[in-house]
């Protein structure tokens, strides 16, 4: 069973790539896919680039052209839930786009017209395995299961953070996971999103992101490796 692993940035992918046994690479569009094994599992690792469109394109290539049967999205996020600190971890129970807005036609914010659902559920087995792995890997940080929201914006203001908490009941926010979840839903492919907090999505987010992004990405890497052992 081939497992697709997606990160948006070099920091999120390089740590995993360095521990892979890479058998070949394939470039499709401007994305380079590393095909090989990681902890004795057949994987395809890729940096999709930042944002929802890049993430959706990448997920569809993994599923449609490279035969991935499971998708794992790993990386960093901004914490929304009041108990989250930098370097804590959220495992997705569900994902949704927070910047999809057709409210002018009577839809709720985040609702996608003419689709059966706009909130995409992560696979429960994958969620549980990721959660268990995170608890084993992390000695000091909290691990929560919850909703992750995505939008094509870096959330760095307390006002937007409050909206995401109040309207969407989000635990954290990033820029790719909901697009990957949407693509998996359309293709009936199980997925999970694993995010370590690089910042708290507030006025200090830009400074915190630069300081903690690599450490957070390393935590996500270890969680992915741990869960792969049990798939």
Automatic annotation (TrEMBL):
Its EC number is 3.2.2.9. Pfam families: PNP_UDP_1 (PF01048). GO terms for biological process: L-methionine salvage from methylthioadenosine; L-methionine salvage from S-adenosylmethionine; nucleoside catabolic process. Pathway: Amino-acid biosynthesis; L-methionine biosynthesis via salvage pathway; S-methyl-5-thio-alpha-D-ribose 1-phosphate from S-methyl-5'-thioadenosine (hydrolase route): step 1/2. The keyword rRNA-binding does not apply. Keywords: Amino-acid biosynthesis, Glycosidase, Hydrolase, Methionine biosynthesis. InterPro entries: MTA_SAH_Nsdase, Nucleoside_phosphorylase_d, Nucleoside_phosphorylase_sf. GO terms for cellular component: cytosol. GO terms for molecular function: adenosylhomocysteine nucleosidase activity; methylthioadenosine nucleosidase activity. Residues 2-228 form the Nucleoside phosphorylase domain. PANTHER family: 5'-METHYLTHIOADENOSINE/S-ADENOSYLHOMOCYSTEINE NUCLEOSIDASE, 5'-METHYLTHIOADENOSINE_S-ADENOSYLHOMOCYSTEINE NUCLEOSIDASE. This is adenosylhomocysteine nucleosidase. It comes from Alkaliphilus metalliredigens (strain QYMF). The lineage of its organism: Bacteria, Bacillati, Bacillota, Clostridia, Peptostreptococcales.
């Amino acid at each position: 069973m081939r497992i697709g692993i997606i990160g948006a940035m070099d920091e999120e992918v390089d740590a995993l790539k360095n521990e892979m046994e890479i058998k070949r690479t394939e470039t499709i569009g401007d994305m380079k896919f590393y095909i090989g094994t990681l902890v004795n599992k057949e994987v395809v690792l890729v940096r999709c680039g930042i944002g929802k469109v890049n993430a959706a394109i990448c997920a569809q290539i993994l599923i449609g052209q490279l035969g991935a049967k499971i998708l794992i999205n790993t990386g960093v996020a901004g914490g929304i839930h009041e108990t989250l600190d930098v370097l804590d971890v959220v495992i997705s129970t569900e994902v949704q786009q927070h910047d999809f807005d057709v409210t002018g036609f009577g839809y709720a914010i985040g609702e996608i017209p003419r689709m059966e659902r706009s909130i995409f559920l992560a696979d429960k087995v994958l969620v549980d395995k990721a959660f268990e792995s995170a608890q084993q890997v992390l000695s000091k940080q909290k691990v929560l299961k919850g909703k992750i929201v995505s939008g094509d914006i870096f959330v760095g203001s307390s006002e937007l953070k409050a909206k995401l908490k109040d309207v969407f009941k989000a635990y954290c926010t990033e820029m790719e996971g909901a697009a990957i979840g949407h693509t998996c839903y359309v293709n009936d492919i199980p997925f999970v999103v694993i995010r370590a907090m690089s910042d708290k999505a507030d006025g200090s987010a830009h400074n915190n992101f630069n300081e903690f992004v690599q450490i957070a990405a390393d935590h996500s890497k270890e969680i992915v490796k741990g869960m792969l052992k049990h798939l």
